[in-house]
Design a protein that fits this description.
- Chain A: This is Amino acid ABC transporter, permease protein.
- Chain A: It comes from Sporolactobacillus inulinus.
- The complex is a heterodimer of chains A (221) and B (266).
- Chain A contains 9 helices and no strands.
- Chain A has 221 residues and is mainly alpha-helical.
- The longest helix of chain A has 34 residues, at 184-217.
- The termini of chain A are far apart.
- The mean pLDDT of chain A is 94.
- Chain B has 266 residues and is an alpha/beta fold.
- Chain B has 9 helices and 12 strands.
- In chain B, the strands form 3 sheets. Chain B has a 6-stranded mixed β-sheet, sandwiched between helices. Chain B has a 4-stranded antiparallel β-sheet with strand order 2-1-4-5, with helices on one face. A two-stranded antiparallel ribbon of chain B has the order 6-7.
- In chain B, α3 crosses α4, α3 packs parallel to α5 (158-170) and α5 (158-170) runs parallel beside α6.
- Chain B is globular and about 50 Å long.
- Classes of the chains: A mainly alpha (221), B alpha/beta (266).
- Chains A and B meet through α6 and α7 of A and α2, β8 and α3 of B.
- Bound molecules: adenosine-5'-diphosphate and magnesium ion.
- Adenosine-5'-diphosphate is lined by residues 20, 25, 43, 45-51 of chain B.
Chain lengths: 221, 266
């Protein structure tokens, strides 16, 4: 039978675990964004071998399951002398996996910049680096913020996978509560509600940002 | 106007050829521009005028031949008598003498007008922000847009944007400035204000100008020399009076007559 008392009594413990979930999402997203940007820049390099290598690597990561990558980082890396905590292995795997999606997002943003912007920068004799930092990126990023926001929410909902490498996040905590009390219904219902309460407003916020950006830039991607 | 046509040329195109894939768009161009000289370039569309200018701006690489600017090779380096491809830092060094105004303005939409004109001064010339701002305001006054400092490009008319683009190029003090059909993307009623600014620049500034244009009356008015191009070649060149009144080549005559027929029919 559903017990309100029990459902409420386990909330503090679940909310504690929620912090781990949010931390993993944020750190994973930062890693994904940095790596994604790096892949995008490498893919535009004039040096062909680098382009080919990065393309192949990105395709490889994208077409293998995140769960396998997590197992690999957590269980196989130690054989090569790299032992990572569940949290580190988790955010690394999550970040690496989603970097292959974010690189596409960055590419979309950069491709939308008209050729004339590069040419004007070059004609004014800006260095390559300054063209990127002063002219291209400040224009490429704002329109893709909604897409980045959507991936952030997707990654948030993917974090329960990290329980597979023993990270004690929300789902893992619910699992432990369930097996100790045999009250799985309350535990997982709570988890579902917490995810909903966080994800839904987040997607509303992304929607609002999207609208603002459309007004500001006339279009988004 | 400027009578600087003596001495060494500032720009020398030598045996320049350009092909895009299998199509040859320029063949064996030899062409000089002298310091301070105002050169107007006319010719049918597709004749290679833009490509010629873009090669000088280093936006397009010649397929053969050399370009010299101020006595220095632009796309090459002379290493023990052999021509080697120039590296990025050499290109940057020589490119600093060249400026360009584009048909579609290409202002930076995420910056105010003031920052559009300050940005390269700060990041390329290493001027302080204060200095860059003073220069920018001075140039904006010159093009009649001092009141638009804090506006964004999208808030300006096409003619105003093009005037800002000219201020942005001018503030870098190039030795030669390229104008590639800078009025042809504008509504007809905005052409005049832009031509007026170009005329002022031509009269006041020491720098050389290469003006690709379809505004024949304007070209005749401000140019020291007019160059007529067709099918990837320079057909003839000379003082405006000669080119417009006594063209030597049948092709030039045809082009000019078609042009005056067109402008009469409008
Ligand atoms: N990037 C390019 N790729 C292929 N063909 C080009 C390119 N740029 C110009 N062309 C071709 O070169 C010829 C000369 O073009 P252009 O220099 O723009 O002439 P103009 O400025 O006199 O109109 C045209 O036939 C044009 O189609
Ligand atoms: Mg052209």
């Amino acid at each position: 039978m559903w017990s309100w008392d029990f459902a409420i009594s386990i909330l503090p413990q679940l909310l504690q675990a929620m912090i781990v979930t949010i931390e993993a999402t944020i750190v994973g997203f930062v890693i994904a964004a940095l790596l994604g940007l790096l892949w995008t820049l490498c893919k535009r390099s004039p040096f062909t071998p680098l382009r080919i290598a990065v393309n192949a690597f990105v395709e490889f990561i994208k077409s293998t399951p995140l769960l396998v990558q997590l197992y690999f980082i957590f269980f196989v890396f130690p054989a090569f002398g790299v032992s990572l905590s569940p949290f580190l292995a988790g955010v690394l795997g999550l970040g690496l996996h989603y970097s292959t999606y974010l690189t596409e997002v960055f590419r979309t943003g950069i491709d939308a910049i008209p050729k004339g912007q590069w040419e004007a920068g070059s004609a004014l004799n800006f260095s390559r680096v300054k063209i990127w930092t002063q002219i291209i990126m400040p224009q490429a990023i704002p329109p893709i913020i909604p897409m980045l926001g959507n991936y952030f929410i997707v990654m948030f909902k993917e974090t329960p996978l990290l329980s597979a490498i023993s990270l004690v996040e929300m789902v893992q905590t619910a699992q432990m509560i369930g097996s100790a009390s045999f009250r799985y219904v309350e535990a997982f219902t709570d988890v579902g509600i917490i995810f909903l309460v966080l994800s839904y407003p987040a997607s509303l916020i992304v929607g609002v940002i999207n609208k603002r950006i459309k007004q500001r830039f006339g279009q988004s991607i | 106007m400027n009578e600087h046509v003596a001495g060494e040329p500032l720009v020398k195109y030598r045996n320049i050829g350009k092909r895009f894939g299998a199509t040859e768009v320029l063949s064996d161009i030899n062409f000089d521009i002298y310091p301070g000289e105002k050169v107007a370039m006319i010719g049918p569309s597709g004749s290679g005028k833009t490509t010629l200018a873009r090669m000088l701006m280093t936006l397009e690489k010649p397929s053969k031949g050399t370009i010299e600017v101020g006595g220095e090779l632009l796309w090459h380096r002379n290493v023990n008598g052999r021509l080697m491809e120039a590296n990025a830092s050499h290109l940057r060094k020589v490119r600093g003498q060249i400026g360009m105004v584009f048909q579609h303005f290409n202002l930076f939409p995420h910056m105010t007008i003031l920052r559009n004109i300050m940005e390269a001064q700060v990041h390329v010339l290493g001027r302080t922000k204060q200095e860059a701002k003073e220069q920018a305001v001075k140039l904006l006054e010159k093009v009649g847009l001092a009141d638009k400092c804090n506006a964004y490009p999208a808030q300006l008319s096409g003619g105003q944007q093009q005037r800002v683009a000219m201020a942005r190029a001018l503030v870098m003090k190039p030795k030669i400035m390229l104008f590639d059909e800078v009025t042809s993307a504008l509504d007809p009623e905005l052409v005049g204000e832009v031509l007026e600014v170009i005329r002022e620049i031509a009269e006041e500034e020491e720098m050389a100008m290469l003006l690709i244009t379809h505004e024949m009356a304007f070209a005749r008015d401000i140019a020291d020399r007019v160059v007529f191009m067709a099918e990837g070649q320079i057909i003839e060149q000379g003082p405006p009076k000669q080119i417009f009144n006594q063209p030597k080549h049948q092709r030039t005559m045809n082009f000019l007559s078609r042009f005056s027929a067109q402008s009469q029919s409008v």
